[in-house]
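4.2 Preliminary Data

To establish feasibility before requesting continued support, the project team ran the inverse folding procedure on a target of 331 residues. The structure was first converted into the token representation described in Section 3, and no sequence information of any kind was made available to the design step. The complete token record follows.
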């Protein structure tokens, strides 16, 4: 069992991350289910058609945007201490460093993930084949033109407690999300901070004006605030989880102000499991237990940066064996 655990650590280990310029980064792919009336969260994917080349900042482990990815609701990602335009802090970092090419030893995208809602350019006139999202002129599917997506925290920040083997209150720490690819807060930056008593605050992305873009996506940043307010405050080592949803909204007539009564397709909650000072395999094991406790199957968990040697199914199998072994030892 020890050998198996070490093998898992070897393929899922994290490398040191160097500061780099912001870009769009990897994105969670979303689709719309016309039968249920819900937006559905899928894999974190690359927003390039050919990830993994030496000059491309995305690693080969990410699916390109040219295919529809599998459903996911739990995303396991590291927290990395970085001094970005938005300030010093512990940022969610789903994109690993590149070991070759122009970006060798660094990453172009120090935080994320963002949001993307299509994957192909084969059906630009109306509905986009396979995604169940549609654009201007499509009568059969939901029309996104003139709409905007908004995120909403559904929980306060939770932290894994080994004593109770469950996630509990994280004390004063909370999560913050913010818009933009530049990493610096400006006069138009949208931000939202989680709360132990979620108040329904929405963080709205830009209005969709181009219904025929081949690869529309919005950039987002996520970080943890140790005292609930300042990114530079101390943050304890551990595994944290935060829940959120995505909804599509319209603006109020003749304005750029979101109409809160126009929400359509609110997704089921999806969760970021974020770890600091803890191995990725341990975080993923606790994430698997968390998912099971919330009725989410193992196939809907994605760990990023993704392992470069084993497929997700193999990693999930190894994690399951590790958990069973630990339970057997406890018994």
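Position-by-position output of the design step:
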């Amino acid at each position: 069992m020890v050998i198996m655990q070490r093998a898992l650590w070897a393929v899922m280990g994290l490398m040191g991350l160097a500061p780099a310029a912001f870009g769009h980064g990897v994105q969670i792919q979303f689709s719309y289910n016309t039968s249920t009336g819900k937006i559905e969260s899928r894999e974190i994917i690359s927003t390039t058609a050919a990830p993994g080349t030496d000059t491309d900042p995305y690693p080969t482990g990410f699916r390109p945007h040219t295919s529809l990815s599998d459903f996911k609701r739990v995303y396991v990602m590291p927290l990395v201490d970085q001094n970005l335009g938005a300030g010093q802090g512990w940022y969610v970092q789903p994109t690993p460093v590149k070991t070759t090419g122009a970006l060798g030893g660094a990453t172009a995208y120090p935080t994320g993930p963002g949001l993307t809602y299509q994957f192909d350019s084969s059906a630009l006139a109306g509905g986009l084949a396979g995604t169940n999202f549609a654009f201007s002129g499509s009568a059969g599917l939901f029309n996104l033109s003139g709409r905007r997506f908004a995120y909403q925290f559904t929980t306060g920040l939770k932290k894994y407690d080994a004593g109770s083997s469950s996630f509990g209150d994280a004390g004063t720490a909370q999560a913050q999300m913010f818009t933009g690819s530049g990493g610096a807060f400006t006069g138009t930056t949208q931000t939202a901070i989680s709360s132990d008593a979620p108040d329904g605050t929405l963080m709205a992305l830009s209005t969709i004006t181009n219904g025929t873009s081949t690869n529309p996506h919005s950039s987002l940043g996520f970080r943890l605030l140790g005292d609930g307010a300042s990114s530079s405050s101390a943050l304890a080592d551990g595994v944290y989880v935060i829940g959120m949803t995505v909804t599509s909204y319209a603006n109020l007539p003749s304005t750029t102000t979101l109409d809160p009564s126009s929400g359509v397709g609110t997704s089921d909650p999806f969760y970021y499991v974020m770890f600091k000072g803890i191995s990725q395999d341990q975080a993923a094991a606790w994430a698997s237990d968390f998912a099971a406790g919330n009725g989410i199957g193992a196939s809907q968990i994605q760990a990023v940066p993704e392992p470069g040697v084993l497929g997700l199914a193999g990693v999930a199998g190894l994690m399951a064996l590790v958990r069973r072994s630990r339970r057997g030892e406890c018994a």
